[in-house]
Prior knowledge:
This protein is 70% helix and 0% strand. By secondary structure, the protein is mostly helical. Helix 5 (72-81) runs antiparallel to helix 6, helix 7 (100-112) crosses helix 9 and helix 8 (119-131) crosses helix 9. The radius of gyration is 21 Å and the shape is elongated.
Amino acid sequence: MSAPDKSLRQxxxxxxxxxxxxxxxxxxxxxxxxxENDDIPALLEDFKKRGWLSxxxxxxxxxxxxxxxxxxARIAHELREKGVADHLIxxxxxxxxxxxxxxxxxxxxxxxxxxxxxxxxxxxxxxxLQGRGFGFDMIKKVLNAAETEEND
Length: 152
């Protein structure tokens, strides 16, 4: 079967064979290929019933892949963009926050090695961590711990 002749169902299965997708994300991927008589929601509901499409599994995969590099704010934003339900995001953020200080410290340490020696360095390191999606309370904990280690 050549690519243009693929059914919507086959196209969806091909996407899911490569990686997990959220319901909304897969719907958006299939939309350009749908014809008038295609019912994307019915197809995706069938996939959900069969266990082939799962927003919970998708959320778990994203959290697992991202939490070592990014904070809860950035992960939650990505999940919202992909159309994941708020209750799944809230559950996932509970899991992320358990290890967030450890992850933030690891991310900071890979980039900076030593604590800030001036206000400018502190601000630079804080902006870096903020860009990675860590909250200000987490940033203060990481940088204050780094300063304490330097002074010991």
